[in-house]
Amino acid sequence: MKKKRGLASCIQEFRKETILTPILVIGEVAFDVLIPMMTARLIDRGIEAGDMSQILRYGALLVGMALVALAFGAMSGRCAARAATGFSRNLRREMYRNVQNFSFSNIDKYSTGGIITRLTTDVTNVQMAFMMLIRIAVRCPIMLICAWSMTFTVNPKLALIFLIVIPILGVGLLLIMKGAHPLFERVFKKYDVLNNVVQENLLGIRVVKSFVREDHEKEKFGKVSQEIYTDFSGAEKLLAFNMPLMQLCVYGCMLTVSWLGAHLVVGGSMTTGQLTTMFSYIMMILMSMMMLSMVLVMLVMARTSAERIVEILNEESDLKTVPESIHEVKDGSVTFENVSFSYTKDPDKECLKSVNLSVKQGETVGILGGTGTSKTTLVQLIPRLYDVTEGRILVGGVDVRDYDMESLRKQVAMVLQKNVLFSGTIKENLRWGNPNATDEELIHACQLAQADSFIQEFPDKYDTYIEQGGSNVSGGQKQRLCIARALLKKPKILILDDSTSAVDTKTDALILKAFREEIPDTTKFIIAQRISSIEGADKILVMDGGKISAIGTHEELLDSCSIYREIYESQTKGGADDE
Questions:
Q1: How far is CA 562 from CA 126, 298, 542, 556, 574, in A?
Q2: Most buried of 15, 124, 229, 501 (most Cβ within 10 A)?
Q3: Cβ partners under 8 Å of residue 510, min gap 6
């Protein structure tokens, strides 16, 4: 079993700065605590005594101490900043790396918006909390303890006042934290929803505008924003009690020490310098407590974010590569042996049921069926994007689960229903199929995919820049570029998932002809809605209800399969009517 990872594993090369920061903070606190004592001596032995030499002496000591404290503070701040930013960088990197290992089912578990929130907002919260933890959370308790200890050296009776204040603050902060944590948990989940809403709107902005649904989208966004506002304001209202509670304790202590200290100075049992020192230590103690309360508030927020980050870090892909995996795919033959599949792993909710199929290397398999008949699910099992629930799939005579996953997928090229092009030039997009492809190979693949003709019409040809999502090319052009990209892999198995739906029948026929002539040894699976796209296939599968309803050649299915015959007649009749 994979060892569970925590946030500490991402500190890595910043351990030095993480350890050095508290040490420098301790040095800063030591000099800060001594400064009020020197101030008392300056007042009592220098100013009140009228001794200029003592004023100069203690004044020089004060300046020196302040400069040393400043130096320690600057160095600790620099180390803390470096450690915190490095820590957050590593968190993002490790999360992103783990996400790249996710199977489709892992990705289905987390929404895209949820992963983005974890990589941005949650990491920022944890970064801020980490910086406060190694600096302020170290400084404040040490400052509080040292300053309180020094008050006993000045006047033990006045020092006991703080014994009343500390428990009040502790109980108050505990109640605030207990109430705020569940609200922050809800808020960050709502952030995931908000990111999803924004992402969907931006990706589908053309659909939104064409259906004039801007008001609906605004209402949807406003609803989620209002929910975040309600929960966040509730949490902030609780946290707002922190400041009045602190001020009550601060002013209560100040008034009590002022009243008692004045009597002691008048009575002669305390000097003016000692009373001034006492006030300095009071401010140190109370400021430390105030800063500590801010750290605790930040930790409440960061705790929720940390839990969400650890979820991603420890999420394991449900697709495992066996230790002695096979790295070479012998050929493109594919065999389905009693294969069943369920996305939920529930046998009662199987979308593929008892599929048996044998395909030889180089054969072309057409797949036809209505919406929801699991055509896409069937082909996604071949490159092991999902694992079968029952049975097994053999590629080149070997169970796909026994292959090294990367080696298997390099030999299986897929052109999915949702064609995706990335920001960059046409050349850069094509080289996803083969990073080392020459310009001649790029052109040849595009000629096979019938893409070269329209690329040559662009002013920059193969250096034409593709916008995000391929928004500056048509659906048919996008499909042909994706087919060319798949061909550059020179795979043993090529899968086209309804990938020529946006091209005309003539172009479709030319692409299929190129496949027959140029890649005869590649096994081809073609999912299509047009019978003309799969008419010449060696085998045609008719899918119905998650099962192979019929299998055969075009002529055989016309004679034996009523579903196939109805589809064929409806399409050919429609074509005749158009003529």
A1: 62, 67, 10, 11, 18
A2: 501
A3: 450
